[in-house]
Amino acid sequence: NGHATALGMANEQLNILDVALQTEAADGFRPVRSDYPDYVEEQRFKLAIILASQGDYEEARFLLTRLASQSSNWSGAAWQFLQSYEHPADFLTACAWAKECVEYLPLQELLSQLVPTQLAELSTLFTGSFLRVESHLVQDLDGDSISEQFLTLAKVNHDPQTWLLTVQDEKVVPFWMAYHDGGRIEQVTATDSHLGLPTYHLSGLSRFGAAFDVFFVQEQDDAGTAQYRPIGQYDYDFINSLESIAADLLEGEIAPEIALWRVRAVMSSPTFLCTEQRIQWTCHHQHLAYYLVGLAHELMGQEAQAVAAYLTLIEGFPDTPYAIMAAAKLTATSWDG
Q1: What pLDDT, on the 0 to 100 scale, is given for residue 10?
Q2: Were 178 and a residue from 100, 131, 204, 311 both cysteine, which residue would form a disulfide, CB within 3.0 to 4.6 Å?
Q3: What separation, in Å, do the N-terminal and C-terminal C-alpha atoms of the chain show?
């Protein structure tokens, strides 16, 4: 991911810097450039920050204290960091208040330092620091009663980025979402569904289903929008295509209950019945919809509902591959009596 530095990369940087500093100490080697005499001090600061981000509190404080006492352009950065770095858990706060630290570490590594109890105070956590909060939205995406956090955040002199923060195994896990013009998260509503499903529009983000009622879309005709709609309005059947539901169900990515809910949402749209004169993705796939309804009921152990859906498919679309598969199922079982 070009927007994040993995812990393994941080370890690699740590090893390289550590060897460089040991070489300097042992051999008196100082790669001074005439235009940048504080090269070694910068490397020592970076090494200390990496150590601090990995929880090596004692070694990080030792390096920073030594650096703060020297006459160097990096002494102030070290001193600023140390003012808030009294315990290992202080790393995020200390880094947010030290411009050089914010500039050096990617946002993913900074956000990974959050603990779940801090999520409720994200809007104020960085107030006055070198991390600027553009917007903050709370939404429980997976129905586990733990709210995920959408945070649009910017480093000083940098464009904002939007992140999804979720809790896994009692740790905060950040996911980079998109660059977002103006740091604005806009909630819109699917226009062709009576369910009125909320949709979160993040510029540049491909669509995917996150829960029963939340989808993410992109400003592209092939990813959730339609030219005949004003920007900010989306057709639910475009967002929630039958092909994607079938793939998710057959690959075991979603439970049959979720697949059934999503298929019925598509079938509730007038575009499903081709009642509107425009190019549609769903009106030529009604046979797939009925097959998915039957399959979902079958997987849920609801035989009567499965048989009803399969019979509707066979009667309405007898020559389609899905009808042939449904007929074979009914012939091979005792469902049809």
Answers
A1: 44
A2: 204
A3: 55
